[in-house]
Give the backbone structure.
Amino acid sequence: MTMTVDRTAPRDLAREVPARLSLTPKTALAGQLDGAWWPHSRDLAAELPPLAAALAEPWGRITRVTVNPTHWPVVPRMVAVDGRTLHVGWFTEQDPDKLILLSYAIGRWDLLVIPPETAPAAAARLMAAAAIPGSVLTAGVLMANEAAIGRGIRDTARREAAWEGEGGACMSPFGAPMGRSALPLSANGRR
């Protein structure tokens, strides 16, 4: 048996695929976040160049990035972007789910960082929520809300699977399937 293994490094993939971004529209409403970024990997050196390139037109030249090192295995001090240097700093006090971008001419932007392993539906919900103008929700709150939504979706799917596995049988309050004859009669004598 022959097996082919794709040994493409995350760094190579990041150069080929554009940054996945959702930005708040230009408005006077200031919120906690300016959008969301969904990187393809946890390789910050590979992920920052496509991000900076994608933001060059709407925001101008990004000169500095800060992250919390919690979710990044390696935080490089500098990253080469289009022949220039992007300085990278880290602060443990910074929200681990947020990336701060700085520019000398333009200012500061805060982006929610969606973990690369996030399911597409969850990432879409997070990207939409982070791009709402004037939102008071922080990156940590958005991630906690999405975790709760994910648990609810999984619980519902598990209950539906149990229902189908039991043939759609009604369950007693004690967790045992009940037959139709065990159902209480309504006021008019029908079940």
In short: DSSP finds four helices and nine strands in the chain. Strands lie at 21-23, 35-37, 64-67, 78-81, 84-90, 98-103, 107-113, 170-171, 177-178.
